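Researcher: Please translate sequence to structure tokens.
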Amino acid sequence: MTKQLAVRVRTTTEGIGRGEPQPQIQGVMLKELHGDGDDRQIFREIIRATDEFFSEGFGQLSYALMYPGSAKAWHLHQKQVDWWYVPIGALKLVLHDLRPDSPTYQQTQEILLGPDYGHRVVKIPPGVAHGCKVLGGVTHLFYVTSNVYNPADEGRIPHDDPGIGYDWLALSPIK
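Model: Translation complete:
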């Protein structure tokens, strides 16, 4: 007997995976995934062309294998939308809104991705700087982009940019 596949799309309202209130960056959306499986496999549908949060459409599918402790920051697109999914491993995704006209301008949000935090896809809108840090073992990141690679749309910001002020070495507070 198989389970029914169910999906839910919502905008983020807290630090996903932490349970701590965090600012919601406008346009960031989360699609929660549920598996359909039996004793042979687990099947997960990741993104459909008909998904409301996928209206910008498909440009490219990419894959990154990241090693424990590695961090990559900051990356930025002016036009391109990204959708990230981590099926294996643990990743802290950090977002910082650099859109001057956004109500969440200069706010930062952390989202934990990977099976231990629930299977989900995160939509990252243009103008939102993003970086990530591997929290556990080898981590696999699949990401879809709304456009094919275009160097003119790629932006980089140093990981220690004082305007963003995010500390990539800081640990979570002890509670």
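Researcher: Any highlights?
Model: The longest strand covers residues 60-66.
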